[in-house]
Amino acid sequence: MTRIILRVYQNPAEAEVFINIRRKSEGFNKQTAKVDTGAAITVLPIQLMSDVEYHLVHEQPIRIHQAGIAQQDFQAYEAKVTLFLEDTFGAETKPYEVTVWFASTREILLGVEDILDRAILHLDMPNQSDCIDLND
Questions:
Q1: Where are the beta strands (DSSP E) in 25-95?
Q2: Tens digit of each residue's pLDDT (9 = 90 or more) over 77-116
Q3: Which pTM value belongs to this model?
Q4: Whether 130 contacts 8, CB under 8 Å
């Protein structure tokens, strides 16, 4: 089991982690992602499609209808990418193939499918001490 320490903020209340997405060329593209237990699938900005290696699940964009407070519709390309998580102390997970949605957004949301669904998430907001334990 790999432990990744999250960066925690109280106002606004959120937790972040680095994700490293395999590039089309060599290496990985490091980005900051917000941990979002309400996101079914990890969401990446569509601009990253020009840099990262991916395999489309559907050739055409799909329409996603969000429930909850936002109740928004948006289009996204559903794809598979390889990524690993990293914390500010240098701890890393092994690379995972995960499903993502490339959408028109500036924020990266670390979602449940293929990542958080294999993890134990520890949140201690008052002490700003949070981590993810991932089964390798």
A1: 28-35, 42-45, 55-56, 62-65, 73-86
A2: 999 999 999 999 999 999 999 999 999 999 999 999 999 9
A3: 0.90
A4: yes
